[in-house]
Structure formats: structure tokens, C-alpha cells
Amino acid sequence: EDKVVQSPLSLVVHEGDTVTLNCSYEVTNFRSLLWYKQEKKAPTFLFMLTSSGIEKKSGRLSSILDKKELFSILNITATQTGDSAVYLCAVHTGTASKLTFGTGTRLQVML
Amino acid sequence: NAGVTQTPKFQVLKTGQSMTLQCAQDMNHEYMSWYRQDPGMGLRLIHYSVGAGITDQGEVPNGYNVSRSTTEDFPLRLLSAAPSQTSVYFCASARNTEAFFGQGTRLTVV
Q1: Which of A51, A56, A87, B86 is most buried (CB neighbours < 10 A)?
Q2: Partners of A73 in the beta sheet?
Q3: Residue B61, preceding peptide bond in cis (omega within 30° of 0)
Q4: Which residues of B fall within a CB distance of 8 Å from A105?
Q5: Rounded to whole angstroms, how far apart are CA atoms A96 and B26?
Q6: Which residues of B touch A (CB under 8 A)?
């Protein structure tokens, strides 16, 4: 059975801090790993990673994949209150575009 | 662009009632799926479809049925609602890349 594990489950930081969110996986027929941000409603797409060692970057957010050790990290620098959300990691497997999600990391950024 | 449209947004059912959650996408995506999200459980896959006429079970399929008669539509049917099915349901569609989600249906079974 495919498995995606995220840590920590929750995190409280102050504005300006840097955070690192972790995602490890054990799946068959890996295709890609995706990060989503979920505020009050539907998850919104952040990054898709397919190759090891290549950093994806968008503003203050960045992510990297290690396919040998089967994990990914999501970094957020200079956090802002608007970064408060649940961050979901999902692994895309098989030929059927199946997505398996982790339980998410709830990030709260305080003033 | 409408993207993925889910209806209704909210629903309260009595135990034993049946209902259908609707999901439609206008992106011509082959893959569609239904997830439920419970506190502390992340998103769990209920059923998915790789194209019209093809469906398969996900992680938590019991108590739910799906069909895929067209590329655009992927309804989720609750046959006999139970309190354990109280959850937020998300429909998603994808084509080889990221999944696009509907806005969710908050379902309460009393």
C-alpha cells in the first residue's frame, strides 16, 4: 500500500522565521511528488517535483526531492501570517495518475 | 474557466438517506477522483476514474458508488448515509500533472 508521511503535524512560528516541512514516501511506480497549500477551502497547487536534486522555487517557497532517500522538503523563508495554512504533500503513482496524500502539516504564523 | 465544479457546497442527511454529490470539469481531463478529508487524516482517496466507462476503488470505497458515463462528469453516490460519512468531500481532475480540486462539499450525517 502506498504511504506518504508528513512531519511535523503542526508548527507555530513567528513572522520572519524560516520553516522546513518534511514529506517521506513509500510507493510503487513513483511518477512525481506534489505540494499543495490548503487554507479554508480546496488545496491549491504549489510545486511538482519529478527529478532528484533540482530545486523548485516560487518567491519565498522552495522545494526539493531526494528520490534515493524517498523524501522531499518544502522551505518557507521570511514567513508571513498569510502563510498560515495546511501544507499537503502528495505522490503521483502508476499509470492512472493516482494521488496519495499525506496527513498534512498545519502551519500557524504569528505576529 | 470553470475548472472543477462541485455541488452542493453543504448538505445535511439523515442516517439511511441516499444522495449524489455532483462533480463536473471542463478541462477535458481523463483522470477524476473523489477524496474525503477528516481532521488529522489528510485527503483519502475514495474512488477514481481514468476515463469514461472506467472506475476503480481507492483507499476508502465502502459505502460509496461512482460512475463515469462522460469525460466531464463523475458523480459520487452515498447509498445509505452513515454518521461515519460526515466529512468534507473533494473532487479532483488531472491529466498527467497536478490535480485541480473543486471547492468541496461539507456533508453532515445525523
Answers
A1: A87
A2: A22, A64
A3: no
A4: none
A5: 19
A6: 30-31, 33, 35, 40-45, 48, 50, 56, 58-59, 90, 92, 94-104
Q: Where are the beta strands (DSSP E) in A8-43?
A: 10-14, 19-26, 30-38
What is the spatial distance between Cα B30 and Cα A97, in angstroms, rounded to a whole number?
9
Which three cell numbers, joined as nine digits, stand for A68? 534515493
- Could you tell me if A21 lies within 8 Å of chain B, comparing CB atoms? no
Q: Which residue has the higher pLDDT, B96 or A40?
A: A40
Residue A68's Cβ-count burial label (10 Å; 0-12, 13-18, 19+) is exposed
What is the DSSP secondary-structure string of B25-48? ESS--SEEEEEEEETTTEEEEEEE
For B22-74, what is each residue's pLDDT tens digit? 999 999 999 999 999 998 778 899 999 989 999 999 889 999 999 999 999 99
| pLDDT number for residue B41 | 76
| Minimum-distance CB partner of A88 among B43, B96, B103 | B43
Distance from CA of A78 to the nearest CA of B (A): 26
Collapse the DSSP code of A83 into the 3-class scheme (helix H, G, I; strand E, B; otherwise coil) and give the result. helix
Residue of B31, B44, B101 with shortest CB distance to A97: B31
By CB neighbour count within 10 A (0-12 exposed, 13-18 middle, 19+ buried), where does A67 fall?
Answer: middle
